[in-house]
Amino acid sequence: MQCGGGLPSRPDPIIVEHIDAITRHKLRKLLKYALATATVGGVLMLVAGRMDFAVVGAWGLLGAWTGVLEEFLFGRRFRSLAIPLQMLGKALAVNLLTIGMLLLAYKLDKGHELPYSSENGLLASRSFYVLMVQVVLVTTAAIMLVQVEEYMGRRFFLGFFLGWYDKPRIRERVVLAIDLVGSSALNERLGDLLYYRFLNTTHSLMTDAILRHGAEIHKYVGDEVIFTWSMKGGTKDNHCIALFFDIKDRIAANKEEMMRNFGASPEFRGGLHGGRVITAQVGHIKRVIDLSGDVMNSTSRVQSLSKEQREDLMITGDLLGRMPTARDQYTIGEPVAMRVKGGKRILQVFAVRKKSVPARIS
Asked: Which of 15, 89, 170, 292 has the fewest CB atoms within 10 Å distance of its CB?
C-alpha cells in the first residue's frame, strides 16, 4: 500500500495472544501423560532386553491419546468416586477405548482380519495378546503416576522423588489463607454429608481461578484453604491478590446454582503475607512436606484480623511493598497495627478492596 509520499506503509503488527492458563494446564497434562507412558514403556523394554526409540515414541503418542481421553472425554465423570476407584475407572475406560482403536487399526490393515473371523485371525496371534497386555500395563501405570502427581502437587511430588526436602530448605514464598465465613452454623444447618458436598463444590469452582493465577494449593484445613506461590510468581501481576477476587467472582457467577442446591452461597475472608519459609519433609510413619516459620503464623493472624475488621481481604505492608502496581488496581485501606505472635514486632496490615470494574468471568 502506497502513502501520499510514495513510500510503502509498514504492515500492521501481528497480535499474538498468549495461551491462557487453563489451556496451558491441559497441554501440560497431555505432556505429562506422554512422558509417563514413554518412561514406563522404556523401562518395560529395558527389562525385556531391547530398546527401540521409535517404539518409545509410539508409547509417548499413546500417552498423549490417554491424556486427551482423560482430560477432554472423561472430564469430571469420576470425581465423585474414591481416589482408588477413580484410577481404576479411568484405567478401565482408557484401555477399553485404546484396545478398540487398535482393533480398528488392525482391521484397516489389509494384512489382518477381524478377530474371531477365522482360525488365522487376530485372536490366534500371540503377539497381539502381548501388545494388549503391554498397553494395559503402561497406560495403567501412567494414569496412576499422573493421578498421584496431581494429588500431591508437582513441586512436592518431584521433591519426594528427587530428595529435595530431605534437608530443610529456606525459600521466599507468598501465602494466602482463606476461610469460609459462618462455617460452624452452616455445617450445623446442612449436616455433615451435605456440608462436605458444599465444600467440594466450592473448591471445584475455584479451579479455573487457581490455574489462571498460577497458585499452588498447599493444604485444606477443614473449611480453610492455603495457597502459595514463589515470591516472584505471587507478586507478578499481583496474582496473589487477584486470585482472591477471581474466586469471589467465580462464586458470585454460580450463586444461583449454589443457592438452589444448598440454600447457601460461600463467602470467604483472607489473609496475605510473604517472606522466608522453611520447606521440609516431616514425619516418619506418615511423611508430608510442610511449610513452617513466622510467615505461616503471621498469615493466620492476618486472616483472623480480617475477621475482626470485617474486611474480605487484608495484606501485610511487607508484601504490599513488593507489588508497586497494586494500588493502581485495588483500593488499599488505612494501615492497622498487628502484633506478631510472641510480641516481638508489629506489622502494618492493610485492607484490600476491589475497585468497581466489570468482573472477567470466562
From this structure: 15
d(CA 337, CA 88): 53
> Residues 94, 139: contact at Cβ < 8 Å?
yes
268-282 and 330-332 beta bridge pairing: unpaired
The answer to whether 133 and 141 have CB atoms below 8 angstroms apart is no
Do β-strands 313-316 and 268-282 pair in parallel, antiparallel, or remain unpaired? parallel
Residue the block writes with cell 484490600: 352
* Among 176, 210, 212, 219, CA closest to 315: 176
Q: What is the pLDDT of residues 123-180, one digit of tens each?
A: 556 777 777 888 888 888 888 888 777 776 677 777 666 666 667 778 899 999 999 9
Say how far apart CA 131 and CA 35 lie, in whole Å.
19
For the record, the C-alpha cell of 161 comes out as 522423588
Within 10 angstroms of residue 169's Cβ, the number of other Cβ atoms is 13
DSSP 72: I
DSSP secondary-structure letter at 2? B
What Å distances lie between residue 56 and 27, 46, 147, CA to CA? 20, 11, 22
What would the pLDDT profile of 73-99 be if each residue is shown by its tens digit?
A: 776 666 656 667 777 777 788 888 887
How far is 201 from 178, CA to CA, in rounded Å? 16
Distance between start and end Cα atoms, the chain = 39
Grid cell digits, residue 118: 477365522
Beta bridge partners of 291: 279
pLDDT of residue 93: 81
User: Is residue 128 exposed (0-12), middle (13-18) or buried (19+ Cβ within 10 Å)?
Assistant: middle
Output the nine-digit C-alpha cell for 29. 497434562
Helix or strand or coil: residue 31?
helix
All three cell numbers of 232, joined, read: 516472584
Q: How far apart are CA 234 and CA 323, in angstroms?
A: 9
For 307, half-sphere exposure in the C-beta direction (CA atoms, 13 angstrom radius) is 14
Pairing verdict, β 216-221 and 224-230? antiparallel
Return the C-alpha cell found at 167. 534437608
Q: Determine which helix (DSSP H) or strand (DSSP E) holds 282, and give its type and residue range.
A: strand 268-282
Contact predicate 173/295, CB 8 Å: yes
* Cell representation of residue 148: 498421584
Global pTM value: 0.70
